[in-house]
Amino acid sequence: MLSIEDLAVEHRSPGRPAVRAVAGASLEVGAGEVVGLVGESGCGKSTLARAVCGLNPITEGSITFEGRPVTPLGLRRRRLTGIQMVFQDPYTSLNPRRRVGDQIADGLRTARDTVTSPADLLERVGLPRDFAGRHPHELSGGQRQRVAIARALAARPRLLIGDEPISALDASAQSQVARLMRDLAVESGAGLLFISHDLSVVRLIADRIAVMYLGRIVEVGGTEEVWAQPRHPYTQALLKAIPHPDGMGVLPAELPGDVPDPASPPEGCRFHPRCPFVMDVCRVKEPEFGPVACWLHEPA
Amino acid sequence: MTRLDIADLKVSLRGKEILRGVDLRLEPGRVHGLAGESGSGKTMTGLAVLGLLPHGARASGAIRLGGRDLLTLPPKELNRVRGGEVAMVFQDPATSLHPMLTIGKQLTEHMRHHLGLGRAEARARAVELLGKVRIPGPEEAYGRFPHQFSGGMRQRIAIAVALACSPKVLIADEPTTALDVTVQAGVLRLLRGLCDEMGLAVLLVTHDLGVMSAVADEVSVMKDGLVVESGPRGRVLREPAHAYTRSLLESLPDLEGRC
Protein backbone atom coordinates (compact mmCIF):
# COMPACT_ATOMS: atom_id res chain seq x y z
CA MET A 1 0.00 0.00 0.00
CA LEU A 2 2.73 2.43 1.04
CA SER A 3 6.00 1.96 -0.69
CA ILE A 4 9.12 3.98 0.02
CA GLU A 5 11.99 3.46 -2.40
CA ASP A 6 15.53 4.74 -1.95
CA LEU A 7 14.18 7.81 -0.24
CA ALA A 8 16.57 10.64 0.48
CA VAL A 9 15.58 13.82 2.26
CA GLU A 10 17.96 16.70 2.76
CA HIS A 11 17.67 19.58 5.15
CA ARG A 12 19.28 22.69 3.76
CA SER A 13 20.18 25.74 5.72
CA PRO A 14 22.11 28.68 4.33
CA GLY A 15 25.84 28.66 4.98
CA ARG A 16 25.93 25.02 6.00
CA PRO A 17 26.33 21.80 4.08
CA ALA A 18 23.08 19.98 3.34
CA VAL A 19 22.25 17.36 5.94
CA ARG A 20 21.00 14.08 4.56
CA ALA A 21 18.57 13.13 7.30
CA VAL A 22 17.26 10.22 5.25
CA ALA A 23 19.84 8.72 2.91
CA GLY A 24 18.42 5.95 0.80
CA ALA A 25 15.75 4.24 2.89
CA SER A 26 13.31 1.69 1.50
CA LEU A 27 10.29 0.40 3.37
CA GLU A 28 6.83 -0.98 2.65
CA VAL A 29 3.69 -0.94 4.75
CA GLY A 30 0.77 -3.16 3.78
CA ALA A 31 -2.93 -2.68 4.52
CA GLY A 32 -3.75 -3.74 8.06
CA GLU A 33 -0.09 -4.11 8.86
CA VAL A 34 1.72 -2.52 11.78
CA VAL A 35 5.32 -1.57 11.09
CA GLY A 36 7.48 -0.24 13.89
CA LEU A 37 10.34 2.07 12.98
CA VAL A 38 12.99 2.38 15.68
CA GLY A 39 16.33 4.11 16.05
CA GLU A 40 18.22 6.63 18.15
CA SER A 41 17.38 10.31 18.13
CA GLY A 42 18.73 12.04 15.08
CA CYS A 43 18.63 8.94 12.89
CA GLY A 44 16.01 10.39 10.55
CA LYS A 45 12.89 8.54 11.74
CA SER A 46 10.80 11.66 12.08
CA THR A 47 12.00 13.13 8.80
CA LEU A 48 10.96 9.93 7.08
CA ALA A 49 7.52 10.13 8.67
CA ARG A 50 7.13 13.76 7.67
CA ALA A 51 8.15 12.99 4.11
CA VAL A 52 5.51 10.26 3.92
CA CYS A 53 2.87 12.81 4.93
CA GLY A 54 4.18 15.33 2.44
CA LEU A 55 5.45 17.64 5.16
CA ASN A 56 9.04 17.44 3.91
CA PRO A 57 10.01 17.67 0.22
CA ILE A 58 11.77 14.64 -1.19
CA THR A 59 15.31 15.02 -2.54
CA GLU A 60 15.66 11.64 -4.20
CA GLY A 61 13.76 8.40 -4.49
CA SER A 62 10.01 8.00 -4.32
CA ILE A 63 7.09 7.50 -1.99
CA THR A 64 3.98 5.95 -3.47
CA PHE A 65 0.71 5.46 -1.67
CA GLU A 66 -1.84 3.18 -3.31
CA GLY A 67 0.03 3.50 -6.58
CA ARG A 68 0.15 7.29 -6.61
CA PRO A 69 3.15 9.41 -5.63
CA VAL A 70 2.91 11.43 -2.44
CA THR A 71 3.25 15.11 -3.24
CA PRO A 72 4.44 17.76 -0.81
CA LEU A 73 1.72 19.60 1.05
CA GLY A 74 0.98 22.98 -0.42
CA LEU A 75 -1.60 25.67 -0.15
CA ARG A 76 -4.12 23.89 -2.28
CA ARG A 77 -6.79 21.67 -0.87
CA ARG A 78 -5.45 18.21 -0.41
CA ARG A 79 -7.00 15.20 -2.06
CA LEU A 80 -4.73 12.71 -0.45
CA THR A 81 -6.34 12.39 2.94
CA GLY A 82 -5.75 8.67 3.22
CA ILE A 83 -2.61 9.31 5.25
CA GLN A 84 -3.03 10.79 8.71
CA MET A 85 -0.47 11.50 11.35
CA VAL A 86 -0.40 11.55 15.15
CA PHE A 87 2.37 13.80 16.37
CA GLN A 88 4.69 13.42 19.33
CA ASP A 89 3.53 16.14 21.63
CA PRO A 90 -0.21 16.40 22.25
CA TYR A 91 0.42 19.66 24.08
CA THR A 92 1.32 21.38 20.82
CA SER A 93 -0.47 19.34 18.18
CA LEU A 94 -3.96 20.26 19.37
CA ASN A 95 -5.32 23.77 18.99
CA PRO A 96 -5.60 25.16 22.53
CA ARG A 97 -8.41 27.57 21.64
CA ARG A 98 -10.83 25.15 20.03
CA ARG A 99 -13.04 22.54 21.61
CA VAL A 100 -11.93 18.95 21.27
CA GLY A 101 -15.14 18.02 19.43
CA ASP A 102 -14.64 20.75 16.81
CA GLN A 103 -11.13 19.57 16.10
CA ILE A 104 -12.32 16.01 15.61
CA ALA A 105 -15.14 17.31 13.38
CA ASP A 106 -12.48 18.71 11.01
CA GLY A 107 -11.36 15.18 10.35
CA LEU A 108 -14.93 14.00 9.79
CA ARG A 109 -15.50 16.78 7.27
CA THR A 110 -12.37 15.73 5.41
CA ALA A 111 -13.78 12.25 5.01
CA ARG A 112 -17.24 13.68 4.11
CA ASP A 113 -18.63 11.68 6.96
CA THR A 114 -22.00 13.04 8.10
CA VAL A 115 -23.07 10.02 10.12
CA THR A 116 -20.38 9.76 12.77
CA SER A 117 -20.25 12.35 15.54
CA PRO A 118 -17.11 13.47 17.37
CA ALA A 119 -18.50 11.87 20.52
CA ASP A 120 -18.58 8.47 18.78
CA LEU A 121 -14.90 8.80 18.02
CA LEU A 122 -14.12 9.85 21.57
CA GLU A 123 -15.85 6.71 22.71
CA ARG A 124 -13.74 4.62 20.36
CA VAL A 125 -10.53 5.96 21.86
CA GLY A 126 -11.82 5.26 25.35
CA LEU A 127 -12.83 8.76 26.44
CA PRO A 128 -16.23 9.90 27.77
CA ARG A 129 -18.58 11.33 25.11
CA ASP A 130 -18.97 14.66 26.89
CA PHE A 131 -15.26 15.46 26.41
CA ALA A 132 -16.27 16.87 23.02
CA GLY A 133 -17.18 20.13 24.71
CA ARG A 134 -13.88 20.52 26.51
CA HIS A 135 -10.72 22.35 25.62
CA PRO A 136 -7.35 20.56 25.45
CA HIS A 137 -6.03 22.21 28.61
CA GLU A 138 -8.69 20.42 30.64
CA LEU A 139 -7.22 17.04 29.70
CA SER A 140 -4.14 15.10 30.78
CA GLY A 141 -1.36 14.19 28.36
CA GLY A 142 -2.69 10.69 27.76
CA GLN A 143 -6.21 11.98 27.19
CA ARG A 144 -4.94 14.61 24.74
CA GLN A 145 -3.06 12.01 22.77
CA ARG A 146 -6.26 9.96 22.58
CA VAL A 147 -8.00 13.04 21.19
CA ALA A 148 -5.24 13.43 18.60
CA ILE A 149 -5.73 9.79 17.63
CA ALA A 150 -9.50 10.30 17.37
CA ARG A 151 -8.93 13.31 15.13
CA ALA A 152 -6.63 11.34 12.85
CA LEU A 153 -9.07 8.42 12.70
CA ALA A 154 -11.99 10.73 11.90
CA ALA A 155 -10.56 11.28 8.43
CA ARG A 156 -10.79 7.52 7.83
CA PRO A 157 -7.14 7.07 6.96
CA ARG A 158 -5.89 4.05 5.10
CA LEU A 159 -2.49 4.69 6.61
CA LEU A 160 -1.93 6.03 10.10
CA ILE A 161 1.47 7.37 11.08
CA GLY A 162 2.50 7.84 14.68
CA ASP A 163 5.64 9.92 15.15
CA GLU A 164 6.80 9.08 18.68
CA PRO A 165 3.17 9.29 19.80
CA ILE A 166 3.89 7.92 23.25
CA SER A 167 7.19 9.43 24.29
CA ALA A 168 5.60 12.52 25.87
CA LEU A 169 3.30 10.37 28.01
CA ASP A 170 3.55 8.86 31.48
CA ALA A 171 5.00 5.38 31.64
CA SER A 172 1.69 3.84 32.64
CA ALA A 173 -0.15 5.50 29.73
CA GLN A 174 2.46 4.55 27.13
CA SER A 175 1.63 0.95 26.48
CA GLN A 176 -2.12 1.67 26.70
CA VAL A 177 -1.97 4.36 24.02
CA ALA A 178 0.32 2.23 21.84
CA ARG A 179 -2.08 -0.72 22.04
CA LEU A 180 -5.02 1.56 21.33
CA MET A 181 -3.39 2.84 18.15
CA ARG A 182 -2.69 -0.66 17.01
CA ASP A 183 -6.18 -1.95 17.73
CA LEU A 184 -7.91 0.96 16.03
CA ALA A 185 -5.72 0.82 12.95
CA VAL A 186 -6.07 -2.92 12.52
CA GLU A 187 -9.81 -2.78 13.20
CA SER A 188 -10.36 -0.25 10.43
CA GLY A 189 -8.07 -2.13 8.05
CA ALA A 190 -5.56 0.71 7.89
CA GLY A 191 -1.82 0.31 7.94
CA LEU A 192 0.15 1.76 10.83
CA LEU A 193 3.66 3.12 10.72
CA PHE A 194 4.63 3.49 14.36
CA ILE A 195 7.79 5.42 15.07
CA SER A 196 9.45 5.20 18.44
CA HIS A 197 12.82 5.01 20.09
CA ASP A 198 11.44 2.55 22.60
CA LEU A 199 11.94 -0.97 21.28
CA SER A 200 10.08 -2.64 24.09
CA VAL A 201 6.86 -0.81 23.22
CA VAL A 202 7.25 -1.29 19.47
CA ARG A 203 7.73 -4.94 20.06
CA LEU A 204 4.39 -5.07 21.81
CA ILE A 205 2.37 -3.81 18.87
CA ALA A 206 4.30 -4.20 15.61
CA ASP A 207 4.08 -7.03 13.07
CA ARG A 208 7.36 -5.99 11.55
CA ILE A 209 10.24 -3.92 12.89
CA ALA A 210 12.49 -1.67 10.84
CA VAL A 211 15.65 -0.40 12.49
CA MET A 212 17.07 2.87 11.28
CA TYR A 213 20.59 4.18 11.74
CA LEU A 214 21.86 7.49 10.42
CA GLY A 215 19.37 7.84 7.60
CA ARG A 216 19.29 4.24 6.44
CA ILE A 217 17.24 1.24 7.37
CA VAL A 218 19.73 -1.35 8.55
CA GLU A 219 17.44 -4.22 9.41
CA VAL A 220 13.86 -5.20 8.66
CA GLY A 221 12.15 -8.32 9.87
CA GLY A 222 9.24 -9.90 11.70
CA THR A 223 8.97 -8.60 15.24
CA GLU A 224 9.56 -11.91 16.98
CA GLU A 225 12.45 -12.71 14.71
CA VAL A 226 14.19 -9.38 15.23
CA TRP A 227 13.61 -9.52 18.96
CA ALA A 228 14.78 -13.08 19.45
CA GLN A 229 17.56 -13.06 16.86
CA PRO A 230 18.73 -9.59 15.95
CA ARG A 231 21.20 -9.88 13.11
CA HIS A 232 22.59 -6.41 12.54
CA PRO A 233 25.18 -5.47 15.20
CA TYR A 234 23.33 -2.19 15.74
CA THR A 235 20.05 -3.95 16.45
CA GLN A 236 21.89 -6.24 18.84
CA ALA A 237 23.35 -3.24 20.66
CA LEU A 238 19.94 -1.56 20.88
CA LEU A 239 18.37 -4.64 22.41
CA LYS A 240 21.20 -5.21 24.86
CA ALA A 241 20.96 -1.63 26.10
CA ILE A 242 17.40 -2.05 27.39
CA PRO A 243 17.50 -2.47 31.16
CA HIS A 244 15.20 -5.21 32.42
CA PRO A 245 13.16 -4.73 35.59
CA ASP A 246 14.13 -8.15 36.93
CA GLY A 247 15.74 -6.92 40.13
CA MET A 248 19.06 -8.56 39.26
CA GLY A 249 21.13 -5.38 39.20
CA VAL A 250 22.57 -6.08 35.75
CA LEU A 251 23.94 -2.95 34.10
CA PRO A 252 22.86 -2.72 30.46
CA ALA A 253 25.51 -3.05 27.76
CA GLU A 254 26.90 0.18 26.43
CA LEU A 255 27.31 1.06 22.76
CA PRO A 256 30.49 3.14 22.64
CA GLY A 257 30.64 6.38 20.72
CA ASP A 258 27.99 8.81 19.55
CA VAL A 259 25.83 8.92 16.47
CA PRO A 260 28.03 10.57 13.81
CA ASP A 261 27.04 13.89 12.28
CA PRO A 262 24.60 13.14 9.44
CA ALA A 263 26.16 16.04 7.50
CA SER A 264 29.35 14.00 7.14
CA PRO A 265 28.57 10.31 7.59
CA PRO A 266 31.52 7.92 7.84
CA GLU A 267 32.86 6.23 4.72
CA GLY A 268 31.74 2.71 4.00
CA CYS A 269 29.21 1.22 6.39
CA ARG A 270 27.70 3.99 8.50
CA PHE A 271 27.91 1.92 11.62
CA HIS A 272 31.52 0.79 11.31
CA PRO A 273 33.13 3.24 13.79
CA ARG A 274 30.92 1.86 16.57
CA CYS A 275 30.64 -1.72 15.40
CA PRO A 276 32.24 -4.44 17.53
CA PHE A 277 32.59 -6.77 14.52
CA VAL A 278 34.09 -4.30 12.07
CA MET A 279 35.92 -5.85 9.09
CA ASP A 280 38.07 -4.31 6.34
CA VAL A 281 35.27 -4.25 3.82
CA CYS A 282 33.06 -2.23 6.20
CA ARG A 283 35.44 0.72 6.08
CA VAL A 284 35.33 1.11 2.33
CA LYS A 285 32.03 -0.15 0.98
CA GLU A 286 28.54 0.59 2.13
CA PRO A 287 26.31 -2.49 2.38
CA GLU A 288 23.45 -1.60 0.06
CA PHE A 289 21.26 -4.63 0.39
CA GLY A 290 18.52 -5.92 2.66
CA PRO A 291 16.94 -7.14 4.79
CA VAL A 292 20.05 -6.80 6.94
CA ALA A 293 22.42 -4.14 5.66
CA CYS A 294 25.60 -5.62 7.10
CA TRP A 295 28.53 -7.33 5.41
CA LEU A 296 28.20 -10.18 7.88
CA HIS A 297 24.80 -10.93 6.40
CA GLU A 298 25.46 -10.40 2.73
CA PRO A 299 22.91 -12.31 0.65
CA ALA A 300 24.53 -15.05 -1.39
CA MET B 1 26.24 4.83 58.77
CA THR B 2 23.38 6.82 57.33
CA ARG B 3 24.58 9.75 55.27
CA LEU B 4 21.29 11.51 54.73
CA ASP B 5 18.24 10.83 56.82
CA ILE B 6 14.85 12.07 55.69
CA ALA B 7 12.33 11.64 58.48
CA ASP B 8 8.60 12.24 58.29
CA LEU B 9 8.99 14.87 55.57
CA LYS B 10 5.77 16.70 54.84
CA VAL B 11 5.41 19.38 52.22
CA SER B 12 2.30 21.34 51.44
CA LEU B 13 1.77 23.87 48.70
CA ARG B 14 -1.27 26.16 48.57
CA GLY B 15 -3.08 24.08 51.13
CA LYS B 16 -2.46 20.86 49.22
CA GLU B 17 -0.37 18.14 50.83
CA ILE B 18 2.23 17.01 48.31
CA LEU B 19 4.35 14.90 50.62
CA ARG B 20 2.59 13.24 53.50
CA GLY B 21 5.38 11.91 55.68
CA VAL B 22 8.28 10.50 53.68
CA ASP B 23 11.03 8.49 55.34
CA LEU B 24 14.18 7.71 53.39
CA ARG B 25 17.76 6.88 54.29
CA LEU B 26 20.73 7.25 51.99
CA GLU B 27 23.88 5.29 52.75
CA PRO B 28 27.35 6.05 51.41
CA GLY B 29 28.28 4.01 48.34
CA ARG B 30 24.68 3.00 47.78
CA VAL B 31 22.14 4.02 45.19
CA HIS B 32 18.65 4.51 46.54
CA GLY B 33 16.03 4.41 43.81
CA LEU B 34 12.81 6.34 44.15
CA ALA B 35 10.05 5.13 41.83
CA GLY B 36 6.49 6.20 41.17
CA GLU B 37 4.31 7.85 38.57
CA SER B 38 4.44 11.54 37.79
CA GLY B 39 2.74 13.53 40.51
CA SER B 40 3.62 11.01 43.21
CA GLY B 41 6.08 13.39 44.88
CA LYS B 42 9.42 11.87 43.80
CA THR B 43 10.86 15.06 42.41
CA MET B 44 9.54 17.13 45.30
CA THR B 45 11.41 14.88 47.73
CA GLY B 46 14.65 15.51 45.85
CA LEU B 47 14.07 19.24 45.72
CA ALA B 48 13.30 19.41 49.43
CA VAL B 49 16.75 18.04 50.24
CA LEU B 50 18.32 20.92 48.36
CA GLY B 51 15.96 23.50 49.78
CA LEU B 52 14.66 24.16 46.27
CA LEU B 53 10.96 23.78 46.99
CA PRO B 54 8.68 26.07 45.02
CA HIS B 55 7.85 29.45 46.48
CA GLY B 56 5.24 29.27 49.22
CA ALA B 57 5.76 25.61 50.02
CA ARG B 58 5.77 24.62 53.68
CA ALA B 59 7.92 21.74 54.84
CA SER B 60 7.99 19.91 58.15
CA GLY B 61 9.86 16.91 59.47
CA ALA B 62 13.62 16.61 59.24
CA ILE B 63 16.35 16.12 56.64
CA ARG B 64 19.51 15.33 58.56
CA LEU B 65 22.96 15.55 57.04
CA GLY B 66 26.01 15.31 59.27
CA GLY B 67 24.27 16.47 62.45
CA ARG B 68 22.40 19.36 60.83
CA ASP B 69 18.78 19.61 59.79
CA LEU B 70 18.67 21.00 56.26
CA LEU B 71 15.08 22.14 56.69
CA THR B 72 15.92 24.58 59.49
CA LEU B 73 19.31 25.68 58.22
CA PRO B 74 19.65 29.44 57.64
CA PRO B 75 19.79 30.33 53.90
CA LYS B 76 23.45 31.30 54.03
CA GLU B 77 24.51 27.93 55.41
CA LEU B 78 22.17 26.11 53.09
CA ASN B 79 23.92 27.80 50.18
CA ARG B 80 27.13 26.26 51.39
CA VAL B 81 25.58 22.79 51.43
CA ARG B 82 23.91 23.16 48.06
CA GLY B 83 26.34 22.40 45.24
CA GLY B 84 28.93 21.55 47.87
CA GLU B 85 27.92 18.62 50.03
CA VAL B 86 24.69 17.92 48.20
CA ALA B 87 24.63 18.12 44.41
CA MET B 88 21.97 17.49 41.83
CA VAL B 89 21.72 16.19 38.29
CA PHE B 90 18.57 17.19 36.44
CA GLN B 91 16.57 15.43 33.78
CA ASP B 92 17.33 17.49 30.75
CA PRO B 93 20.97 18.41 30.16
CA ALA B 94 19.86 20.74 27.36
CA THR B 95 18.29 23.07 29.91
CA SER B 96 20.32 22.41 33.06
CA LEU B 97 23.59 23.66 31.52
CA HIS B 98 23.97 27.34 30.73
CA PRO B 99 23.98 27.71 26.93
CA MET B 100 26.14 30.84 26.88
CA LEU B 101 28.92 29.77 29.22
CA THR B 102 31.77 27.43 28.38
CA ILE B 103 31.93 24.03 30.00
CA GLY B 104 35.03 25.18 31.84
CA LYS B 105 33.30 28.18 33.37
CA GLN B 106 30.38 26.07 34.54
CA LEU B 107 32.72 23.52 36.07
CA THR B 108 35.02 25.90 37.89
CA GLU B 109 32.71 28.67 39.11
CA HIS B 110 31.24 26.81 42.05
CA MET B 111 34.52 24.99 42.70
CA ARG B 112 36.25 28.32 43.25
CA HIS B 113 33.37 29.52 45.38
CA HIS B 114 32.89 26.45 47.55
CA LEU B 115 36.43 25.12 47.74
CA GLY B 116 38.27 28.43 47.38
CA LEU B 117 40.50 27.08 44.61
CA GLY B 118 42.64 29.32 42.43
CA ARG B 119 42.05 29.60 38.70
CA ALA B 120 44.76 27.15 37.65
CA GLU B 121 43.90 24.61 40.33
CA ALA B 122 40.24 24.74 39.42
CA ARG B 123 41.07 24.28 35.76
CA ALA B 124 43.26 21.26 36.42
CA ARG B 125 40.54 19.69 38.51
CA ALA B 126 37.88 20.43 35.90
CA VAL B 127 39.89 18.73 33.18
CA GLU B 128 40.43 15.76 35.46
CA LEU B 129 36.67 15.57 36.12
CA LEU B 130 35.86 15.71 32.41
CA GLY B 131 38.19 12.78 31.92
CA LYS B 132 36.56 10.95 34.79
CA VAL B 133 33.10 11.20 33.21
CA ARG B 134 34.76 10.07 29.97
CA ILE B 135 34.44 13.10 27.76
CA PRO B 136 36.82 12.55 24.85
CA GLY B 137 39.52 15.23 24.72
CA PRO B 138 38.89 16.89 28.11
CA GLU B 139 41.39 19.70 27.43
CA GLU B 140 39.54 20.85 24.31
CA ALA B 141 36.13 20.22 25.83
CA TYR B 142 36.96 22.66 28.62
CA GLY B 143 36.67 25.65 26.28
CA ARG B 144 33.59 24.51 24.37
CA PHE B 145 29.92 25.35 24.76
CA PRO B 146 27.11 22.92 25.66
CA HIS B 147 25.54 23.00 22.17
CA GLN B 148 28.70 21.48 20.75
CA PHE B 149 28.01 18.23 22.59
CA SER B 150 25.44 15.48 22.10
CA GLY B 151 22.72 14.83 24.70
CA GLY B 152 24.61 11.97 26.33
CA MET B 153 27.82 13.98 26.53
CA ARG B 154 25.92 16.92 28.01
CA GLN B 155 24.50 14.72 30.73
CA ARG B 156 28.02 13.49 31.49
CA ILE B 157 29.13 17.11 31.75
CA ALA B 158 26.20 17.87 34.06
CA ILE B 159 27.36 14.97 36.23
CA ALA B 160 30.90 16.38 36.23
CA VAL B 161 29.50 19.76 37.33
CA ALA B 162 27.64 18.05 40.15
CA LEU B 163 30.74 16.16 41.26
CA ALA B 164 33.04 19.17 41.15
CA CYS B 165 32.94 19.94 44.86
CA SER B 166 33.19 16.29 45.96
CA PRO B 167 29.63 16.07 47.24
CA LYS B 168 28.60 13.50 49.82
CA VAL B 169 25.10 13.19 48.46
CA LEU B 170 24.04 13.21 44.82
CA ILE B 171 20.44 13.62 43.80
CA ALA B 172 19.76 12.49 40.25
CA ASP B 173 16.28 13.33 39.01
CA GLU B 174 15.42 11.21 35.96
CA PRO B 175 19.01 11.56 34.73
CA THR B 176 18.54 9.30 31.71
CA THR B 177 14.92 9.89 30.74
CA ALA B 178 15.83 12.36 27.98
CA LEU B 179 18.47 10.02 26.52
CA ASP B 180 18.42 7.15 24.04
CA VAL B 181 18.74 3.63 25.47
CA THR B 182 22.23 3.14 24.11
CA VAL B 183 23.39 6.41 25.66
CA GLN B 184 21.44 5.72 28.83
CA ALA B 185 23.41 2.54 29.35
CA GLY B 186 26.66 4.52 29.38
CA VAL B 187 25.39 7.15 31.81
CA LEU B 188 24.03 4.48 34.18
CA ARG B 189 27.36 2.68 34.19
CA LEU B 190 29.09 5.95 34.92
CA LEU B 191 26.76 6.78 37.83
CA ARG B 192 27.14 3.34 39.34
CA GLY B 193 30.93 3.47 39.00
CA LEU B 194 31.18 6.91 40.60
CA CYS B 195 28.97 5.86 43.46
CA ASP B 196 31.15 2.85 44.22
CA GLU B 197 34.42 4.64 43.71
CA MET B 198 33.72 7.87 45.61
CA GLY B 199 31.40 6.45 48.26
CA LEU B 200 28.63 8.79 47.14
CA ALA B 201 25.16 8.42 48.55
CA VAL B 202 22.88 8.64 45.51
CA LEU B 203 19.16 9.28 45.40
CA LEU B 204 18.03 8.18 41.94
CA VAL B 205 14.58 9.43 41.02
CA THR B 206 13.15 7.56 38.05
CA HIS B 207 9.88 6.17 36.78
CA ASP B 208 11.74 3.52 34.79
CA LEU B 209 11.83 0.28 36.75
CA GLY B 210 14.34 -1.15 34.30
CA VAL B 211 16.79 1.62 35.16
CA MET B 212 15.99 1.05 38.81
CA SER B 213 16.77 -2.61 38.54
CA ALA B 214 20.07 -1.92 36.83
CA VAL B 215 21.65 0.50 39.29
CA ALA B 216 19.70 0.84 42.54
CA ASP B 217 20.61 -1.07 45.71
CA GLU B 218 17.48 -0.08 47.59
CA VAL B 219 14.17 0.81 46.03
CA SER B 220 11.36 2.92 47.45
CA VAL B 221 8.05 3.26 45.67
CA MET B 222 6.01 6.43 46.09
CA LYS B 223 2.34 7.05 45.55
CA ASP B 224 0.38 10.18 46.41
CA GLY B 225 3.10 11.66 48.58
CA LEU B 226 3.82 8.52 50.60
CA VAL B 227 6.41 5.80 50.38
CA VAL B 228 4.26 2.70 49.99
CA GLU B 229 7.04 0.17 49.75
CA SER B 230 10.74 0.18 50.45
CA GLY B 231 13.40 -2.49 50.49
CA PRO B 232 16.33 -4.14 48.72
CA ARG B 233 16.07 -4.03 44.93
CA GLY B 234 15.72 -7.76 44.41
CA ARG B 235 12.87 -8.13 46.85
CA VAL B 236 10.86 -5.09 45.77
CA LEU B 237 11.09 -5.89 42.07
CA ARG B 238 10.76 -9.65 42.28
CA GLU B 239 8.40 -10.06 45.21
CA PRO B 240 6.57 -6.77 45.51
CA ALA B 241 4.51 -6.66 48.68
CA HIS B 242 2.37 -3.66 47.84
CA ALA B 243 -0.40 -3.80 45.25
CA TYR B 244 0.73 -0.52 43.71
CA THR B 245 4.25 -1.81 43.05
CA ARG B 246 2.73 -4.88 41.43
CA SER B 247 0.53 -2.73 39.21
CA LEU B 248 3.55 -0.64 38.17
CA LEU B 249 5.44 -3.76 37.21
CA GLU B 250 2.46 -5.16 35.36
CA SER B 251 1.95 -1.99 33.32
CA LEU B 252 5.35 -2.50 31.71
CA PRO B 253 5.59 -4.05 28.28
CA ASP B 254 6.20 -7.69 29.02
CA LEU B 255 9.68 -8.75 28.04
CA GLU B 256 8.86 -12.44 28.09
CA GLY B 257 6.59 -12.17 25.10
CA ARG B 258 2.98 -12.05 26.21
CA CYS B 259 0.96 -9.28 24.68
- Strand-residue proportion of chain B: 15-25%
Q: Helical residue percent of chain B?
A: 25-40%
Query: What name does the CATH topology of chain A carry?
Result: Rossmann fold
CATH class of the domain at 4-94 and 168-250 in chain B: Alpha Beta
What pattern of helices and strands is seen along the backbone of chain B?
EEEHEEHEHHHHHEHEHEEHH
Largest interface by residue count?
A: A-B, 34 and 42 residues
The figure for the number of domains of chain A is 1
Mind telling me which CATH architecture of the domain at 4-94 and 168-250 in chain B this is? Answer: 3-Layer(aba) Sandwich
Number of helices of chain A: 10
Strands of the widest sheet of chain B, in order across it, are 6-7-8-3-9-10
Largest sheet of chain A: 6 strands, mixed
Structure in words:
The complex is a heterodimer of chains A (300) and B (259). Chain A is an alpha/beta fold. Chain A is built from ten helices and ten strands. Helices cover 29% and strands 21% of the residues of chain A. Chain A starts with a strand and ends in a 16-residue tail after the last helix. Chain B has 259 residues and is an alpha/beta fold. In chain B, helix 8 links the parallel strand 7 and strand 8. Chain B has a domain of 174 residues: Rossmann fold. The mean pLDDT of chain B is 89. Chain B contains eleven helices and ten strands. At the A-B interface, helix 6 and helix 7 of A face helix 7, helix 8, helix 9 and helix 10 of B.
